[in-house]
Amino acid sequence: MDMQMTAWTALYSASRTSAGGRVPSGATARRVFGIAKERLPRLVAFLVTGVALAVLAVASPLLAGQVVNRIVAGDPGGAVIGLALVIAAVAVAEAGLGLLSRWLSSGIGEGLILDLRSRVFDHVQRMPVAFFTRTRTGALVSRLNNDVLGAQRAFSDTLSGVVTNVVTLVLTLVVMLSISWQVTLLALVLLPVFVLPARRIGRRVADLRREAADLDAAMLAQMTERFSAPGATLVKLFGRPAQESGEFRDRASRVRDIGVRSAMVQTVFVTALTLVSALALALVYGLGGRLAVAGSLDAGAVVSLALLLTRLYSPLTALANARLEVMTALVSFERVFEILDLPPLITDKADARPVPDGPVAVEFDDVRFAYPSPEKVSLASLEEVATLDTRGGEPVLHGISFRAEPGQMVALVGSSGAGKSTIASLVPRLYDPDAGAVRLAGADVRDLTAESVRATVGMVTQDGHLFHDTIRANLAFARPGADDTDIWQALRRARLAELVESLPDGLDTVVGERGYRLSGGERQRLTIARLLLARQRVVILDEATAHLDSTSEAAVQEALDEALSGRTAIVIAHRLSTVRAADKILVVEAGRVVEEGTHERLLALSGRYADLYRTQFAQDKAVTVA
After folding, report:
1. Nearest to 181 by CA among 340, 313, 367, 305
2. CA atoms within 13 A on the CB side of 411
3. Could you tell me if residue 357 is inside a domain?
């Protein structure tokens, strides 16, 4: 390694180490050791390989010095050739051990990445919906990428680097002192000139990189929001393109300026340290040469000292920054553990059982519920705020009781914010009630397996989500084993088969992000087809036709009639005309059921339902006349 490369290595090591002022706890370190134990055999082999490489790295300068001594002494060429062969063998061994070390390192690092990413991904999937409504998606994805990679470096770089550098440093110092203590002390005197600027400038470069990363994140957030279909539509309708471009260009310009400053700082630093290193070599050659001329030092020893000098600065600088590297890696682990330590609110009991076979009744028994407070479901760092919002935990449902018999349709109506969607979310166990019980086929959902609840309860919301994938993939998401025959049958029942057949790619048509390549009615019917394909025994419709025009609503309503046939259904409806045929209608206000009955009975009561119906009928009549 030449001096310029040593300088670049020193700067890289110093500039990438920043724990942000945070000191991880001892518990974090203990958990990291626990992870290390899982990979102990490979780690030991990795460290042994690193030690062997360090020994060979010191051996090469000594052999080079011996070659010079043999040449100066005029020894027969055979001895020089023999040493050359040994040097070649050392080089081959270094190459082989280097490949082995890299293979072990990558196996440990990539295995750790796989393990941590899988753990975080699986854990996040078990989090409640409230977690996702509060968390910024980009911050969460960053944990799966940047922080996992930062944690991986603790094993693949930092750990091996510390061991290898300690061995290299000790061996190099011992050998250099044994050759000439005077030259060695000279090299150590110049060490602060090399190490201290590396740490100071390294922190400056790290600060510039963090600033650039923040600006890059801001640009990414702007692009993500503006380039999505609804975001782009909003910008076109209300945005100011010139101002949007100006803001983006301003951030991009600042990133450019930071890049130029960072490049110049690094170049000046490396140039200065390369110069210092060259001067140090000159001193070694000067003092060593004088000692050699005086006969107190061999010529080969001078060459060995010069070569060993290049192997002295790099490990010393790396070890000087080792603490910061360890802290940075532990902070990455801590940020990953933060998510893993956030307990999911919905878990299966040890003795959880599946939903009983046969028809399913849905029962609410004095259910009371409050949405979980932020500290139970979120992290300030994931919301990118200083402290979590203290609001939350206020009761939303107050003693809800009703029963939907197998095959019945129960409708929930009432004002916006009355608690209808909250009631619906408790059936598929998106949340658990705080008191009372929600039962499927007579069994409390908290006693049932989550998998069987998902297989039993299907839900269509007013904004049915679709993945940026094909029609086939979006439908098969509900039932992975479904074949094309099943898929086409579901499409026909959802009144969508004719449309899909007319598409050039048929089932392989990509629907776009959130399904925006389809109309609102088509997108909603596709979500209904997905529900039909899943063949669930309980269906929940949460204002599935709320935002559709009359033509699309009619098509979707036909598909819904097909979906509800023979199933227990809970329907949330804003348009009362769609639930007139319901077996039971519940009027929900302020988290309480204030009226219950059929359409005719509720009209006869002349209460809240009658008021809602008359108001809506008058509005519809006014729209029709207009």
Report:
1. 305
2. 22
3. no
| Structure token pair of residue 323 | 């603490």
**Are 267 and 378 within one domain?**
no
Instruction: Name the nearest CA neighbour of 244 among 261, 227, 263.
Output: 227
Phi-psi region of 417 (alpha: psi -120 to 50; beta: other; left: phi over 0): left
Last residue of a domain, one of 308, 340, 372: 340
Is residue 91 over pLDDT 80? yes
pLDDT, residue 626, reads 42
Question: Same domain, yes or no, for 276 and 152?
Answer: yes
Determine the Cα–Cα distance for residues 522 and 466; give it in Å rounded to an integer: 11
- Tell me if 404 sits within 8 A of 570, measured CB to CB: yes
Assigned domain for 355 exists? no
User: What is the residue range of 367's domain?
Assistant: 362-625
Give the pLDDT confidence of 563-579 residue by residue, as tens digits. 677 789 899 887 777 78
**Residue 291 shares a structural domain with residue 376:** no
Q: 162-194 b/e with 16+ CB inside 10 Å = b?
A: bbbbbbbbebbbebbeebbeebbebbeebeeeb
d(CA 126, CA 137): 16
CA 140 to chain CA mean position, Å: 5
Confirm whether 599 is domain-assigned: yes
User: Is 410 in the same domain as 322?
Assistant: no
Phi, then psi, of 245 in degrees rounded to 5: -65, -40
Residue 362, judged by CB atoms within 10 A of its CB (0-12, 13-18, 19+), counts as buried
pLDDT of residue 624: 44
φ/ψ of 296, rounded to 5, equals -95, 0
- CATH number of the domain that 201 lies in? 1.20.1560.10
Asked if residue 296 and residue 416 are part of one domain, the reply reads: no
pLDDT tens digits for 332-374? 788 888 888 888 888 889 999 999 988 899 999 999 999 888 7
Number of domains in the chain: 2
List strands edge to edge, sheet with 362-370.
395-404, 362-370, 435-440, 443-444
Look up the pTM and report it. 0.70
Return the DSSP state at 16. T
Among 25-39, 174-188, 528-542, the minimum mean pLDDT is found in 25-39
Q: What is the pLDDT of residue 440?
A: 94
CB-hemisphere CA count at 13 Å for 266? 22
CATH number of the domain enclosing 532: 3.40.50.300
Q: Are residues 311 and 375 in the same domain?
A: no
